[in-house]
Design goal:
This protein has 110 residues and is mainly alpha-helical. It is built from three helices and two strands. Helix 1 packs antiparallel against helix 2.
């Protein structure tokens, strides 16, 4: 028994937008991380006490940072799923059903 039997005659779908996006994910992740992180770092390195507005802005930047990370992760998962779906089709080994017993299908009369 061989595993992963390819379906004969299956035509592989050509790559599309998923590869373009998948190759840009590191750039999107780096730029999306650098922008909010640079502001947070600049505020902390000023050596002055933080006021309430600066703290609120830092928390908003952290929220934006985590949102970008989750978006990039979901984008990567979506691209991988599409790549797998566009791959070759596989067929499972046949499973022969047992012989049918017609007597079991008859309903008793009430």
């Amino acid at each position: 028994m061989r595993y992963l039997n390819k379906l004969p005659g299956f035509i592989k779908t050509p790559a599309g937008l998923e590869w373009v996006l998948f190759k840009k994910i590191p750039l999107i992740f780096a730029v999306g991380t650098a922008i909010p992180a640079s502001y947070i770092l600049a505020v902390y390195l000023r050596n002055s006490p933080l006021n309430a507005l600066q703290q609120q802005t830092i928390y908003q930047c952290l929220g934006l940072l985590f949102t970008i990370w989750f978006f990039v992760g979901a984008l990567a998962i979506g691209c991988v799923v599409v790549m797998i779906m566009k791959g070759p089709a596989y067929v499972a080994d046949p499973y022969e059903l047992p012989k049918e017993n017609k007597k079991l299908e008859q309903h008793p009369e009430l």
